[in-house]
Amino acid sequence: GKDEIKPFSRFILFQVVIIGVLWLADTFFYFFEQNIFNTYITNVLDYSDLYVALMVGLSATVGLIMNFVWGIISDNTRSKYGRRRPYLLFSIIAGFGMILAAYSNNYILLVIFDVLLIGITANAVSVSSRALIPDLAKLEQRGRANGIVQAVSCTVFSLFPFPPVRALRIPAAPRRSCTCGSSGRRSCLVPWR
Length: 193
Description:
By secondary structure, this protein is an all-alpha fold. Helix content is 63%, strand content 0%. The longest helix is centred in the first third of the chain and has 35 residues, at 10-44.
């Protein structure tokens, strides 16, 4: 017969459920970053899609670089809480960055909050939460641990249905003259005028 897989200890199971909740928060976070920020730039700040592309490109570049950086840093961390757990606290800073981004009425501030503050801290959380399962569970238990993480994340996520982004009815910014003489901000190439 096949060897039976040992069940998780309560401590490991609790940590796996917590990781599932963090994955849920990660899903919420990236949903809002990908959908709401872009709509905010075009409809509230009244900038063209070029500015959305610029912010998304910068955010993706910082994310790519920081994934490697945080991976190297967390692999070489030795603390009494383990290699990955201290970096989960960066989720507090990323959440604070989301709140600041919501109150930014300036494109430059939004880019600073999204690309730098959120991009750096959210990647610390993503890298450490994804690498925590291999650190916690034995090889034969990882599939079950990842299944529990996804089940918790998807179950709780399905309890909070999101309206489509276009149903949010974000009001457009009123058209105003730019100091460069153009008729509106969409035609002005300098966003801070």
